[in-house]
């Protein structure tokens, strides 16, 4: 009887929980169009399944040292060099919401700390296929540390395939 009551209470507690938004895999981002952006973080939502940061892009062009970004070895093994060859600057003064990897992956991949408003973030990212101003980075740089965001080979373009 006690188990039945506990099960009912547990079920009731779960029914009142807020629904979790589904996250999008790499297929929901235009992997044929990598962009470079760098600017100040204006907001942070540090939660799972994917933290989000909003960045006001201050870069209007690729800086002379853009290809000297600190690229983690694991990202290089996934063919990131080809991504770097295709990268184009995002327009300046645009705000971009970046969908980051889950927090546990960020920690395992060397994220130096949780970003905060005012921090400068640099990213190589792929714009959303359907949402203006939303992108998923393959690489972010915070405090001079390159943190990969990609752990799988990317599907081509806007495939819609739930990956990553």
UniProtKB/TrEMBL annotation:
This protein's name: DUF6152 family protein
Task: List the signal peptide residues.
Answer: 1-22
Q: Which UniProt keywords apply?
A: Signal
One family name in Pfam for this protein? DUF6152
- Indicate whether Signal appears among the record's keywords: yes
Tell me which domain of life the UniProt entry assigns to the organism this sequence originates from. Answer: Bacteria
* InterPro entries linked: DUF6152 (IPR046150)
Originating organism: Neorhizobium phenanthreniclasticum
């Amino acid at each position: 009887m006690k188990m039945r009551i506990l099960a009912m209470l547990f079920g009731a507690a779960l029914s009142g929980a807020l629904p979790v938004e589904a996250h999008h895999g790499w297929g929901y981002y235009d992997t044929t169009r990598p962009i470079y952006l760098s600017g100040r973080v204006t907001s942070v939502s540090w939660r799972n399944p994917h933290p989000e940061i909003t960045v006001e892009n201050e870069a209007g062009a690729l800086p002379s040292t853009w290809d000297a970004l600190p690229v983690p070895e694991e990202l290089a093994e996934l063919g990131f060099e080809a991504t770097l060859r295709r990268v184009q600057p995002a327009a300046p003064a645009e705000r971009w919401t970046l969908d980051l990897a889950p927090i546990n992956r960020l920690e395992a991949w060397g994220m130096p700390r949780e970003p905060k408003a005012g921090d400068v973030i640099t990213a190589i990212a792929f714009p959303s296929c359907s949402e203006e101003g939303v992108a998923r980075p393959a690489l972010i740089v915070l405090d001079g540390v390159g943190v990969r965001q990609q752990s799988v080979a990317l599907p081509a373009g806007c495939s819609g395939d739930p990956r990553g």
